[in-house]
Amino acid sequence: LVIPYIPIVLFPLCFSIFLSHQIYHFTFFFFFFQAEDGIRDAQESRGLGDVYKRQVGNQHYERARQLLVDQGDRHEAIGLLRQALDSNPSHADAAHWLGHSILRIGGTGYKQVQQLLARIQLSKLRDTAALDTVMLLGQTHEKLADLEQAATAYRRCATSQELKGGQREDVKRGMAMHGWVRVLLADGRPEEALEVADTGVARWPSMWQMRDVQAAALAQVGAVGRATRVLQQSCLMIRAMPPQLTLLPSTVLGSTAAWIALGNLNLNQSAEECDLDRISIQGLPGKGFEFWREQYLSKNRPAIIVGEMGPGTVWEELREAWALDKLAQSKVPVSLRRSSHVATDQEFDGQSHVRTTLSDYVNTGLSNVTASDPLYLLTQVSDLGGRFSGRANRAVAADRLFNHTRLTADLVTRQQNALFYLGGPGAGATFHAHTNAWNALLHGRRQWYLYPPHHFPGPYSVPWSEWESHQQRLRPYKCLQQPGEILYVPDQWFHGVRNLGTSVGLAVEGGSWSGLLELRVADMLSLIHISEPTRLLSISYAVFCLKKKKKKRKVIDLM
Fold it and tell me: In this structure, what are the phi and psi dihedrals at residue 113, rounded to the nearest 5 degrees?
Protein backbone atom coordinates (compact mmCIF):
# COMPACT_ATOMS: atom_id res chain seq x y z
CA LEU A 1 0.00 0.00 0.00
CA VAL A 2 1.13 3.50 -0.76
CA ILE A 3 1.23 5.70 2.33
CA PRO A 4 -0.09 9.17 1.37
CA TYR A 5 1.82 12.37 1.87
CA ILE A 6 5.31 10.86 2.42
CA PRO A 7 7.72 13.55 1.18
CA ILE A 8 9.76 12.68 -1.85
CA VAL A 9 13.22 11.74 -0.58
CA LEU A 10 16.36 10.48 -2.20
CA PHE A 11 19.22 9.24 -0.14
CA PRO A 12 22.10 6.87 -0.75
CA LEU A 13 23.04 3.93 1.45
CA CYS A 14 26.70 3.27 1.07
CA PHE A 15 28.75 0.51 2.53
CA SER A 16 31.98 -1.27 1.77
CA ILE A 17 32.95 -4.91 1.61
CA PHE A 18 36.46 -6.02 2.32
CA LEU A 19 37.36 -9.10 0.34
CA SER A 20 40.84 -10.42 -0.28
CA HIS A 21 42.42 -7.15 0.79
CA GLN A 22 40.39 -5.42 -1.94
CA ILE A 23 37.84 -2.82 -1.10
CA TYR A 24 34.58 -2.76 -3.11
CA HIS A 25 32.23 0.16 -2.73
CA PHE A 26 28.50 -0.16 -3.36
CA THR A 27 25.96 2.62 -3.44
CA PHE A 28 22.20 1.95 -3.37
CA PHE A 29 19.59 4.53 -4.11
CA PHE A 30 16.14 4.26 -2.59
CA PHE A 31 13.21 6.28 -3.96
CA PHE A 32 10.09 7.18 -2.02
CA PHE A 33 7.30 8.98 -3.89
CA GLN A 34 4.44 10.97 -2.54
CA ALA A 35 1.08 9.37 -3.26
CA GLU A 36 -1.04 11.40 -5.65
CA ASP A 37 -3.17 13.94 -3.89
CA GLY A 38 -6.74 12.70 -3.67
CA ILE A 39 -6.09 8.95 -3.61
CA ARG A 40 -7.99 7.47 -0.72
CA ASP A 41 -6.30 5.71 2.19
CA ALA A 42 -5.72 1.99 1.86
CA GLN A 43 -6.08 2.15 -1.96
CA GLU A 44 -3.77 -0.06 -3.94
CA SER A 45 -1.13 1.81 -5.95
CA ARG A 46 -1.71 2.02 -9.67
CA GLY A 47 1.96 2.56 -10.43
CA LEU A 48 4.10 5.42 -11.64
CA GLY A 49 2.64 5.37 -15.15
CA ASP A 50 -0.86 5.97 -13.82
CA VAL A 51 0.34 8.86 -11.66
CA TYR A 52 2.02 10.41 -14.68
CA LYS A 53 -1.12 10.04 -16.80
CA ARG A 54 -3.15 11.81 -14.15
CA GLN A 55 -0.67 14.68 -14.01
CA VAL A 56 -0.85 15.01 -17.80
CA GLY A 57 -4.64 14.94 -17.54
CA ASN A 58 -4.54 17.82 -15.05
CA GLN A 59 -2.37 19.81 -17.46
CA HIS A 60 -4.88 19.25 -20.27
CA TYR A 61 -7.69 20.33 -17.94
CA GLU A 62 -5.95 23.56 -16.88
CA ARG A 63 -5.19 24.47 -20.51
CA ALA A 64 -8.82 23.81 -21.47
CA ARG A 65 -10.15 25.94 -18.60
CA GLN A 66 -7.90 28.80 -19.63
CA LEU A 67 -9.24 28.57 -23.19
CA LEU A 68 -12.82 28.69 -21.93
CA VAL A 69 -12.10 31.62 -19.60
CA ASP A 70 -10.40 33.54 -22.42
CA GLN A 71 -13.26 32.67 -24.81
CA GLY A 72 -10.83 30.87 -27.07
CA ASP A 73 -11.39 27.92 -29.37
CA ARG A 74 -14.12 25.87 -27.68
CA HIS A 75 -13.46 22.92 -29.98
CA GLU A 76 -9.81 22.83 -28.90
CA ALA A 77 -10.92 23.02 -25.27
CA ILE A 78 -13.27 20.08 -25.81
CA GLY A 79 -10.41 18.04 -27.28
CA LEU A 80 -8.22 18.80 -24.26
CA LEU A 81 -11.00 17.91 -21.84
CA ARG A 82 -11.48 14.59 -23.59
CA GLN A 83 -7.76 13.90 -23.20
CA ALA A 84 -7.97 14.84 -19.53
CA LEU A 85 -10.77 12.32 -19.00
CA ASP A 86 -8.87 9.68 -20.94
CA SER A 87 -5.96 10.16 -18.54
CA ASN A 88 -8.15 10.40 -15.44
CA PRO A 89 -11.70 9.03 -15.91
CA SER A 90 -12.69 10.24 -12.42
CA HIS A 91 -11.72 13.88 -13.06
CA ALA A 92 -15.00 15.51 -11.99
CA ASP A 93 -14.11 19.03 -13.13
CA ALA A 94 -13.09 17.83 -16.60
CA ALA A 95 -16.37 15.91 -16.94
CA HIS A 96 -18.36 18.97 -15.86
CA TRP A 97 -16.69 21.37 -18.25
CA LEU A 98 -16.77 18.89 -21.12
CA GLY A 99 -20.51 18.50 -20.68
CA HIS A 100 -20.96 22.26 -20.37
CA SER A 101 -18.93 22.93 -23.54
CA ILE A 102 -20.73 20.30 -25.61
CA LEU A 103 -24.13 21.73 -24.68
CA ARG A 104 -22.96 25.29 -25.36
CA ILE A 105 -22.14 24.28 -28.92
CA GLY A 106 -25.38 22.35 -29.04
CA GLY A 107 -26.80 19.21 -30.31
CA THR A 108 -26.48 15.53 -30.52
CA GLY A 109 -24.22 14.97 -27.56
CA TYR A 110 -27.06 14.94 -25.00
CA LYS A 111 -26.84 11.23 -24.21
CA GLN A 112 -23.07 11.44 -23.92
CA VAL A 113 -23.31 14.48 -21.63
CA GLN A 114 -25.92 12.71 -19.52
CA GLN A 115 -23.52 9.80 -18.99
CA LEU A 116 -20.65 12.17 -18.17
CA LEU A 117 -22.58 14.13 -15.58
CA ALA A 118 -24.24 11.13 -13.95
CA ARG A 119 -20.88 9.77 -12.76
CA ILE A 120 -19.62 13.01 -11.20
CA GLN A 121 -19.23 13.16 -7.44
CA LEU A 122 -20.47 16.68 -6.69
CA SER A 123 -18.25 16.93 -3.62
CA LYS A 124 -15.18 16.58 -5.87
CA LEU A 125 -16.02 19.64 -7.97
CA ARG A 126 -14.09 22.86 -7.64
CA ASP A 127 -15.13 26.46 -8.29
CA THR A 128 -18.61 25.94 -6.82
CA ALA A 129 -19.64 24.07 -9.98
CA ALA A 130 -22.01 21.63 -8.25
CA LEU A 131 -25.11 23.69 -8.99
CA ASP A 132 -24.05 24.10 -12.63
CA THR A 133 -23.59 20.36 -13.00
CA VAL A 134 -27.07 19.52 -11.72
CA MET A 135 -28.49 22.26 -13.96
CA LEU A 136 -26.75 20.71 -16.97
CA LEU A 137 -28.13 17.33 -16.01
CA GLY A 138 -31.63 18.84 -15.96
CA GLN A 139 -31.10 20.28 -19.43
CA THR A 140 -29.96 16.96 -20.86
CA HIS A 141 -32.93 15.13 -19.34
CA GLU A 142 -35.23 17.78 -20.83
CA LYS A 143 -33.70 17.52 -24.30
CA LEU A 144 -34.03 13.73 -24.18
CA ALA A 145 -37.69 14.01 -23.06
CA ASP A 146 -37.01 12.54 -19.59
CA LEU A 147 -39.29 15.20 -18.14
CA GLU A 148 -39.72 13.72 -14.68
CA GLN A 149 -35.95 13.47 -14.20
CA ALA A 150 -35.53 16.98 -15.60
CA ALA A 151 -38.07 18.38 -13.13
CA THR A 152 -36.25 16.65 -10.26
CA ALA A 153 -32.89 18.13 -11.29
CA TYR A 154 -34.28 21.66 -11.77
CA ARG A 155 -36.14 21.50 -8.46
CA ARG A 156 -32.95 20.45 -6.69
CA CYS A 157 -31.06 23.36 -8.23
CA ALA A 158 -33.74 25.84 -7.25
CA THR A 159 -34.27 24.70 -3.68
CA SER A 160 -31.25 22.77 -2.36
CA GLN A 161 -28.92 24.85 -0.21
CA GLU A 162 -26.27 22.12 -0.37
CA LEU A 163 -25.46 23.02 -3.98
CA LYS A 164 -23.24 26.07 -4.32
CA GLY A 165 -23.09 28.22 -7.44
CA GLY A 166 -20.64 31.03 -6.77
CA GLN A 167 -21.24 34.75 -7.24
CA ARG A 168 -24.22 34.28 -9.58
CA GLU A 169 -25.82 31.60 -7.46
CA ASP A 170 -29.10 33.46 -7.01
CA VAL A 171 -29.51 34.05 -10.76
CA LYS A 172 -28.74 30.38 -11.46
CA ARG A 173 -31.39 29.30 -8.99
CA GLY A 174 -33.87 31.58 -10.71
CA MET A 175 -33.11 30.04 -14.11
CA ALA A 176 -33.47 26.58 -12.54
CA MET A 177 -36.92 27.56 -11.26
CA HIS A 178 -37.77 28.76 -14.78
CA GLY A 179 -36.64 25.40 -16.18
CA TRP A 180 -38.74 23.59 -13.59
CA VAL A 181 -41.89 25.45 -14.69
CA ARG A 182 -41.05 24.89 -18.35
CA VAL A 183 -40.75 21.14 -17.85
CA LEU A 184 -43.99 20.93 -15.85
CA LEU A 185 -45.80 22.71 -18.69
CA ALA A 186 -44.24 20.35 -21.21
CA ASP A 187 -45.37 17.39 -19.12
CA GLY A 188 -49.00 18.55 -19.12
CA ARG A 189 -49.07 19.67 -15.47
CA PRO A 190 -50.13 23.35 -15.73
CA GLU A 191 -51.54 23.59 -12.17
CA GLU A 192 -48.24 22.51 -10.64
CA ALA A 193 -46.40 24.75 -13.08
CA LEU A 194 -48.48 27.75 -12.03
CA GLU A 195 -47.81 27.13 -8.34
CA VAL A 196 -44.05 27.00 -8.95
CA ALA A 197 -44.19 30.01 -11.30
CA ASP A 198 -46.03 32.14 -8.71
CA THR A 199 -43.34 31.27 -6.17
CA GLY A 200 -40.63 32.11 -8.69
CA VAL A 201 -42.11 35.50 -9.60
CA ALA A 202 -42.42 36.40 -5.91
CA ARG A 203 -38.76 35.45 -5.39
CA TRP A 204 -37.39 36.95 -8.65
CA PRO A 205 -39.84 39.72 -9.62
CA SER A 206 -37.47 41.28 -12.18
CA MET A 207 -36.83 38.05 -14.12
CA TRP A 208 -38.81 38.34 -17.37
CA GLN A 209 -38.33 34.64 -18.17
CA MET A 210 -40.31 33.75 -15.05
CA ARG A 211 -43.18 36.00 -16.08
CA ASP A 212 -43.19 34.39 -19.50
CA VAL A 213 -43.79 30.87 -18.16
CA GLN A 214 -46.20 32.25 -15.54
CA ALA A 215 -48.36 33.75 -18.30
CA ALA A 216 -48.22 30.47 -20.26
CA ALA A 217 -49.27 28.48 -17.19
CA LEU A 218 -52.13 30.88 -16.47
CA ALA A 219 -53.39 30.57 -20.03
CA GLN A 220 -53.27 26.76 -19.87
CA VAL A 221 -55.43 26.71 -16.73
CA GLY A 222 -57.88 29.15 -18.34
CA ALA A 223 -56.93 32.29 -16.38
CA VAL A 224 -56.53 34.48 -19.47
CA GLY A 225 -57.38 37.68 -17.58
CA ARG A 226 -54.58 37.20 -15.10
CA ALA A 227 -52.21 36.17 -17.89
CA THR A 228 -53.01 39.46 -19.61
CA ARG A 229 -52.13 41.44 -16.50
CA VAL A 230 -48.83 39.54 -16.18
CA LEU A 231 -47.94 40.42 -19.76
CA GLN A 232 -48.93 44.06 -19.22
CA GLN A 233 -46.54 44.22 -16.28
CA SER A 234 -43.90 42.62 -18.48
CA CYS A 235 -44.40 45.39 -21.03
CA LEU A 236 -43.60 47.99 -18.37
CA MET A 237 -40.61 45.98 -17.20
CA ILE A 238 -39.18 45.79 -20.72
CA ARG A 239 -39.62 49.51 -21.28
CA ALA A 240 -37.51 50.16 -18.19
CA MET A 241 -34.63 48.09 -19.59
CA PRO A 242 -31.71 49.53 -21.57
CA PRO A 243 -32.70 49.49 -25.28
CA GLN A 244 -29.97 47.02 -26.24
CA LEU A 245 -31.42 44.42 -23.85
CA THR A 246 -35.08 44.56 -24.91
CA LEU A 247 -35.08 42.52 -28.13
CA LEU A 248 -35.00 38.99 -26.66
CA PRO A 249 -37.58 39.49 -23.88
CA SER A 250 -39.96 41.37 -26.16
CA THR A 251 -39.62 38.62 -28.79
CA VAL A 252 -40.23 35.71 -26.42
CA LEU A 253 -43.00 37.38 -24.42
CA GLY A 254 -44.56 38.66 -27.63
CA SER A 255 -44.77 35.16 -29.11
CA THR A 256 -46.36 33.90 -25.88
CA ALA A 257 -48.90 36.73 -25.94
CA ALA A 258 -49.65 36.05 -29.61
CA TRP A 259 -50.35 32.38 -28.94
CA ILE A 260 -52.66 33.21 -26.00
CA ALA A 261 -54.44 35.86 -28.10
CA LEU A 262 -55.10 33.29 -30.84
CA GLY A 263 -57.11 31.41 -28.25
CA ASN A 264 -55.48 27.99 -28.61
CA LEU A 265 -55.77 28.19 -32.35
CA ASN A 266 -57.77 25.32 -33.81
CA LEU A 267 -56.28 24.96 -37.23
CA ASN A 268 -57.59 22.60 -39.89
CA GLN A 269 -56.81 19.53 -37.79
CA SER A 270 -59.17 17.36 -39.81
CA ALA A 271 -57.35 17.99 -43.07
CA GLU A 272 -55.29 15.08 -44.35
CA GLU A 273 -52.52 17.07 -46.05
CA CYS A 274 -52.23 20.30 -44.09
CA ASP A 275 -53.46 21.68 -40.77
CA LEU A 276 -52.46 25.22 -41.79
CA ASP A 277 -54.34 27.81 -43.81
CA ARG A 278 -53.38 27.82 -47.49
CA ILE A 279 -53.70 31.38 -48.71
CA SER A 280 -53.16 33.26 -51.94
CA ILE A 281 -52.09 36.85 -51.35
CA GLN A 282 -53.85 37.97 -54.51
CA GLY A 283 -57.07 36.33 -53.34
CA LEU A 284 -57.12 37.96 -49.91
CA PRO A 285 -59.62 40.74 -49.09
CA GLY A 286 -58.70 44.37 -49.75
CA LYS A 287 -55.02 44.99 -50.08
CA GLY A 288 -53.70 41.46 -49.95
CA PHE A 289 -50.39 42.11 -48.23
CA GLU A 290 -51.97 44.38 -45.66
CA PHE A 291 -54.37 41.57 -44.78
CA TRP A 292 -51.45 39.11 -44.67
CA ARG A 293 -49.54 41.31 -42.23
CA GLU A 294 -52.54 41.99 -39.97
CA GLN A 295 -53.98 38.47 -39.82
CA TYR A 296 -50.89 36.26 -40.05
CA LEU A 297 -47.49 37.92 -39.70
CA SER A 298 -48.31 40.25 -36.81
CA LYS A 299 -50.39 37.54 -35.11
CA ASN A 300 -47.78 34.80 -35.32
CA ARG A 301 -50.20 32.57 -37.24
CA PRO A 302 -48.57 29.93 -39.48
CA ALA A 303 -49.70 29.56 -43.08
CA ILE A 304 -48.85 28.18 -46.51
CA ILE A 305 -48.65 30.89 -49.20
CA VAL A 306 -49.39 29.90 -52.77
CA GLY A 307 -49.15 31.85 -56.03
CA GLU A 308 -46.03 33.88 -55.20
CA MET A 309 -43.59 31.67 -57.11
CA GLY A 310 -45.43 31.32 -60.39
CA PRO A 311 -44.31 31.94 -64.01
CA GLY A 312 -42.97 35.38 -64.83
CA THR A 313 -41.47 35.92 -61.36
CA VAL A 314 -37.85 35.86 -60.20
CA TRP A 315 -38.61 32.47 -58.71
CA GLU A 316 -38.92 30.93 -62.16
CA GLU A 317 -35.35 32.00 -62.91
CA LEU A 318 -34.12 30.65 -59.57
CA ARG A 319 -35.98 27.37 -60.04
CA GLU A 320 -34.17 26.82 -63.32
CA ALA A 321 -30.76 27.79 -61.86
CA TRP A 322 -31.19 25.43 -58.91
CA ALA A 323 -32.32 22.42 -60.93
CA LEU A 324 -30.51 19.23 -59.99
CA ASP A 325 -28.72 18.92 -63.31
CA LYS A 326 -27.27 22.42 -62.84
CA LEU A 327 -26.27 21.77 -59.24
CA ALA A 328 -24.59 18.52 -60.30
CA GLN A 329 -22.10 20.49 -62.38
CA SER A 330 -20.85 22.67 -59.52
CA LYS A 331 -17.54 21.90 -57.80
CA VAL A 332 -18.29 24.29 -54.93
CA PRO A 333 -17.06 22.77 -51.62
CA VAL A 334 -19.89 22.11 -49.16
CA SER A 335 -20.22 20.74 -45.65
CA LEU A 336 -22.92 18.13 -44.99
CA ARG A 337 -24.40 17.18 -41.65
CA ARG A 338 -26.61 14.43 -40.37
CA SER A 339 -30.23 15.54 -40.32
CA SER A 340 -30.45 15.24 -36.53
CA HIS A 341 -27.42 17.55 -36.20
CA VAL A 342 -28.61 20.37 -38.44
CA ALA A 343 -30.91 22.22 -36.05
CA THR A 344 -28.24 22.69 -33.39
CA ASP A 345 -25.26 23.15 -35.73
CA GLN A 346 -23.42 20.42 -33.88
CA GLU A 347 -19.74 19.80 -34.66
CA PHE A 348 -18.15 19.44 -31.23
CA ASP A 349 -16.31 16.23 -32.03
CA GLY A 350 -15.55 16.78 -35.71
CA GLN A 351 -17.78 13.87 -36.66
CA SER A 352 -20.87 15.77 -37.68
CA HIS A 353 -19.56 17.47 -40.81
CA VAL A 354 -18.76 15.65 -44.04
CA ARG A 355 -16.70 17.69 -46.50
CA THR A 356 -17.43 17.16 -50.18
CA THR A 357 -18.43 19.09 -53.30
CA LEU A 358 -21.90 19.99 -54.45
CA SER A 359 -21.56 17.81 -57.55
CA ASP A 360 -20.45 14.75 -55.55
CA TYR A 361 -23.35 15.15 -53.14
CA VAL A 362 -25.89 15.46 -55.97
CA ASN A 363 -24.44 12.57 -57.97
CA THR A 364 -23.80 10.10 -55.14
CA GLY A 365 -24.90 11.36 -51.70
CA LEU A 366 -28.58 11.88 -52.53
CA SER A 367 -28.99 8.23 -53.52
CA ASN A 368 -28.26 6.98 -49.98
CA VAL A 369 -31.91 6.70 -48.97
CA THR A 370 -31.44 3.75 -46.61
CA ALA A 371 -29.63 5.75 -43.93
CA SER A 372 -31.65 6.27 -40.73
CA ASP A 373 -30.14 9.75 -40.36
CA PRO A 374 -29.40 10.99 -43.90
CA LEU A 375 -26.88 13.68 -44.79
CA TYR A 376 -28.36 17.11 -45.44
CA LEU A 377 -26.99 20.32 -46.93
CA LEU A 378 -28.00 23.58 -45.26
CA THR A 379 -25.66 26.48 -45.94
CA GLN A 380 -25.69 30.22 -46.52
CA VAL A 381 -26.41 31.10 -50.13
CA SER A 382 -23.29 33.26 -50.22
CA ASP A 383 -21.18 30.11 -49.73
CA LEU A 384 -22.29 28.83 -53.14
CA GLY A 385 -20.65 31.66 -55.05
CA GLY A 386 -22.01 34.31 -57.37
CA ARG A 387 -23.36 31.88 -59.97
CA PHE A 388 -26.03 30.67 -57.55
CA SER A 389 -26.26 33.46 -54.96
CA GLY A 390 -27.04 36.32 -57.35
CA ARG A 391 -30.43 34.94 -58.36
CA ALA A 392 -31.27 34.09 -54.75
CA ASN A 393 -30.49 37.66 -53.66
CA ARG A 394 -32.84 38.97 -56.33
CA ALA A 395 -35.57 36.65 -55.08
CA VAL A 396 -35.10 37.88 -51.50
CA ALA A 397 -35.14 41.50 -52.69
CA ALA A 398 -38.40 40.90 -54.58
CA ASP A 399 -40.05 39.23 -51.57
CA ARG A 400 -43.06 41.13 -50.25
CA LEU A 401 -43.91 38.86 -47.32
CA PHE A 402 -41.13 40.20 -45.06
CA ASN A 403 -40.62 43.58 -46.72
CA HIS A 404 -41.77 45.69 -43.78
CA THR A 405 -40.07 48.07 -41.38
CA ARG A 406 -41.69 46.44 -38.35
CA LEU A 407 -39.48 43.37 -38.86
CA THR A 408 -36.08 43.61 -37.19
CA ALA A 409 -34.12 42.04 -40.10
CA ASP A 410 -33.62 44.48 -42.99
CA LEU A 411 -33.06 43.47 -46.61
CA VAL A 412 -29.26 43.32 -46.35
CA THR A 413 -29.48 41.09 -43.28
CA ARG A 414 -32.03 38.81 -44.94
CA GLN A 415 -29.83 38.44 -48.02
CA GLN A 416 -26.69 37.78 -45.98
CA ASN A 417 -28.39 35.10 -43.89
CA ALA A 418 -30.48 33.44 -46.62
CA LEU A 419 -30.06 29.66 -46.58
CA PHE A 420 -29.86 27.14 -49.41
CA TYR A 421 -31.01 23.62 -48.61
CA LEU A 422 -30.75 20.34 -50.48
CA GLY A 423 -31.46 16.81 -49.33
CA GLY A 424 -32.72 13.44 -50.41
CA PRO A 425 -35.74 11.51 -49.09
CA GLY A 426 -35.76 11.37 -45.29
CA ALA A 427 -33.31 14.24 -44.87
CA GLY A 428 -34.26 17.50 -43.16
CA ALA A 429 -33.94 19.34 -39.86
CA THR A 430 -35.18 18.24 -36.45
CA PHE A 431 -37.03 20.52 -34.04
CA HIS A 432 -35.78 24.02 -33.34
CA ALA A 433 -37.17 27.55 -33.01
CA HIS A 434 -36.12 31.05 -34.12
CA THR A 435 -37.65 34.31 -35.30
CA ASN A 436 -40.13 34.69 -38.18
CA ALA A 437 -39.04 32.77 -41.26
CA TRP A 438 -40.35 31.64 -44.62
CA ASN A 439 -39.29 28.55 -46.52
CA ALA A 440 -39.71 28.50 -50.31
CA LEU A 441 -39.72 25.06 -51.93
CA LEU A 442 -38.41 24.97 -55.51
CA HIS A 443 -38.28 21.22 -56.10
CA GLY A 444 -39.61 18.20 -54.19
CA ARG A 445 -42.08 17.72 -51.32
CA ARG A 446 -41.60 18.26 -47.58
CA GLN A 447 -43.49 17.16 -44.47
CA TRP A 448 -43.59 19.82 -41.74
CA TYR A 449 -44.32 19.48 -38.02
CA LEU A 450 -45.00 22.56 -35.87
CA TYR A 451 -45.62 23.23 -32.17
CA PRO A 452 -46.58 26.64 -30.71
CA PRO A 453 -44.57 28.28 -27.89
CA HIS A 454 -44.49 26.39 -24.58
CA HIS A 455 -45.52 23.12 -26.22
CA PHE A 456 -42.82 20.48 -26.06
CA PRO A 457 -41.90 18.76 -29.37
CA GLY A 458 -40.38 15.65 -27.78
CA PRO A 459 -36.70 14.64 -27.79
CA TYR A 460 -34.38 17.04 -29.59
CA SER A 461 -31.65 16.24 -32.09
CA VAL A 462 -32.56 12.62 -32.68
CA PRO A 463 -33.23 10.92 -36.03
CA TRP A 464 -36.80 11.23 -37.26
CA SER A 465 -37.41 7.50 -36.77
CA GLU A 466 -36.56 7.85 -33.07
CA TRP A 467 -38.73 10.94 -32.68
CA GLU A 468 -41.72 9.19 -34.28
CA SER A 469 -41.33 6.21 -31.93
CA HIS A 470 -41.53 8.52 -28.91
CA GLN A 471 -45.02 8.88 -27.45
CA GLN A 472 -45.95 12.53 -28.06
CA ARG A 473 -48.25 14.10 -25.49
CA LEU A 474 -49.58 16.59 -28.03
CA ARG A 475 -50.16 16.12 -31.73
CA PRO A 476 -48.16 18.63 -33.80
CA TYR A 477 -49.63 20.73 -36.57
CA LYS A 478 -48.69 19.01 -39.81
CA CYS A 479 -48.47 20.21 -43.37
CA LEU A 480 -47.29 18.71 -46.64
CA GLN A 481 -45.52 21.42 -48.63
CA GLN A 482 -45.68 21.17 -52.42
CA PRO A 483 -43.20 22.71 -54.91
CA GLY A 484 -43.92 26.38 -55.57
CA GLU A 485 -45.32 26.96 -52.07
CA ILE A 486 -43.93 29.11 -49.25
CA LEU A 487 -44.35 28.04 -45.63
CA TYR A 488 -44.45 30.79 -43.01
CA VAL A 489 -43.07 29.69 -39.60
CA PRO A 490 -43.98 32.17 -36.82
CA ASP A 491 -41.62 33.60 -34.24
CA GLN A 492 -40.55 31.05 -31.57
CA TRP A 493 -42.64 28.19 -32.97
CA PHE A 494 -40.90 24.82 -32.74
CA HIS A 495 -40.69 23.19 -36.13
CA GLY A 496 -39.05 20.31 -37.92
CA VAL A 497 -39.11 19.18 -41.54
CA ARG A 498 -38.44 15.97 -43.43
CA ASN A 499 -38.13 15.54 -47.19
CA LEU A 500 -40.49 13.13 -48.93
CA GLY A 501 -38.36 13.34 -52.05
CA THR A 502 -35.20 15.10 -53.16
CA SER A 503 -35.91 18.72 -52.26
CA VAL A 504 -34.27 22.06 -53.06
CA GLY A 505 -35.23 25.45 -51.71
CA LEU A 506 -34.49 28.76 -50.02
CA ALA A 507 -35.12 29.77 -46.40
CA VAL A 508 -35.07 33.34 -45.06
CA GLU A 509 -35.39 34.61 -41.51
CA GLY A 510 -37.08 37.99 -41.15
CA GLY A 511 -36.49 38.75 -37.49
CA SER A 512 -39.15 39.65 -34.92
CA TRP A 513 -42.22 41.86 -35.37
CA SER A 514 -41.55 45.05 -33.44
CA GLY A 515 -44.29 45.82 -30.91
CA LEU A 516 -45.74 42.30 -31.03
CA LEU A 517 -46.19 42.17 -27.24
CA GLU A 518 -48.22 45.37 -27.03
CA LEU A 519 -50.35 44.47 -30.06
CA ARG A 520 -51.26 41.06 -28.76
CA VAL A 521 -51.96 42.27 -25.21
CA ALA A 522 -54.53 44.60 -26.78
CA ASP A 523 -56.04 41.56 -28.55
CA MET A 524 -56.18 39.63 -25.29
CA LEU A 525 -58.25 42.36 -23.67
CA SER A 526 -61.07 41.52 -26.06
CA LEU A 527 -60.99 37.86 -24.95
CA ILE A 528 -61.57 38.45 -21.26
CA HIS A 529 -64.50 39.82 -19.29
CA ILE A 530 -63.35 42.56 -16.92
CA SER A 531 -65.00 45.56 -15.31
CA GLU A 532 -65.47 48.58 -17.56
CA PRO A 533 -63.10 50.91 -15.62
CA THR A 534 -60.37 48.28 -15.67
CA ARG A 535 -61.06 47.61 -19.34
CA LEU A 536 -60.81 51.31 -20.25
CA LEU A 537 -57.60 51.68 -18.24
CA SER A 538 -56.10 48.62 -19.93
CA ILE A 539 -57.05 49.79 -23.41
CA SER A 540 -55.59 53.23 -22.70
CA TYR A 541 -52.38 51.60 -21.58
CA ALA A 542 -52.17 49.41 -24.72
CA VAL A 543 -52.78 52.44 -26.95
CA PHE A 544 -50.07 54.35 -25.05
CA CYS A 545 -47.58 51.52 -25.70
CA LEU A 546 -48.43 51.47 -29.40
CA LYS A 547 -48.13 55.24 -29.79
CA LYS A 548 -44.73 55.21 -28.11
CA LYS A 549 -43.58 52.50 -30.48
CA LYS A 550 -44.89 54.33 -33.58
CA LYS A 551 -43.02 57.48 -32.64
CA LYS A 552 -39.78 55.54 -32.72
CA ARG A 553 -40.43 53.78 -36.03
CA LYS A 554 -42.85 54.96 -38.69
CA VAL A 555 -44.78 52.15 -40.37
CA ILE A 556 -44.70 52.22 -44.19
CA ASP A 557 -47.58 50.70 -46.14
CA LEU A 558 -45.87 49.01 -49.07
CA MET A 559 -49.10 48.51 -50.93
Answer: -65, -40
